[in-house]
Hints:
Layout (H helix, E strand, L loop, with lengths): L1 E12 L2 E12 L2 E6 L6 H8 L7 E6 L4 E2 L5 H7 L1 E4 L11 H8 L6 H6 L5 H11 L14 H13 L5 E5 L7 H14 L4 E5 L3 H7 L2 E6 L2 E6 L1 H5 L2 H8 L2
Parallel strand pairs: 3-8, 3-9, 6-7, 7-8
Antiparallel strand pairs: 1-2, 1-4, 4-5, 9-10
Helix pairs in contact: 3-5, 3-6, 5-6
Amino acid sequence: MTLLEVDGISVSFDGFQAINGLSFAIGEPELRAVIGPNGAGKTTFMDIVTGKTRPDSGRVLWGETNRNILGQSESAIARLGIGRKFQKPTVFEDQTVRENLAMALKDRRGPFSVLFGLPADEGRLLDFAEEVGLAAQLDRLAGELSHGQKQWLEIGMLLAQEPRLLLVDEPAAGMTPAEREHTTDLLKRLARRHAVVVVEHDMDFVRRLDCRVTVLHEGRVLAEGSLDHVTQNQDVIDVYLGR
Length: 243
Ligand SMILES: Nc1ncnc2c1ncn2[C@@H]1O[C@H](COP(=O)(O)OP(=O)(O)OP(=O)(O)O)[C@@H](O)[C@H]1O
């Protein structure tokens, strides 16, 4: 099923056309890599989908009913189930892994936990820690984690909000080879149940994701398909790979 569709999106900043008739769709579940040269519009695409940037024209269609979510606030869009992970981890370093996850849990302040002061749902919290590979680190301070572990914690915090679509910006940047491998496995596993969009420059990492790839250039889709398919496309070679 198509979960997200951007349809004919355009946006210009001070007369510069950053996104220019961008259209493509993401299924649920699906793993999709979005690649393209610097300035291609990858970040702006995520800004538009999450409600941070308002385009000049086009539609962003969501869910079973294909409703246009453009114009909704960032928090309303997050509540619909669109989660975003920025490149730089933003975990709370002086809190434990457990506390970070607890803060992120959706509905953690439900009426009962507020009334009776119950702790956050420990079972769900453990599930998310397990999912990202941090079950053995729950009582460590986030600040003591490796760069890769911080990234996984942040992915766990994103999962705790129960998104349907995860937008993940350059997850492999700064990671060791072992951390990259763990991250590839994690993203692939998540994409069995979620729509996962990974913006990434590292072609080795993209190859290991083994998924459909969308190549952006000058604010529109230049090519789409398997990595082998797009890397043989002459336009892609000219503007991105061959430089
Ligand atoms: N708020 C803004 N004001 C002016 N120009 C902007 C703004 N946001 C983005 N741009 C411009 O729009 C173009 C697309 O930028 P964007 O950051 O989306 O590209 P990108 O594909 O994410 O690039 P990179 O791989 O370098 O992160 C760039 O030329 C950028 O300078």
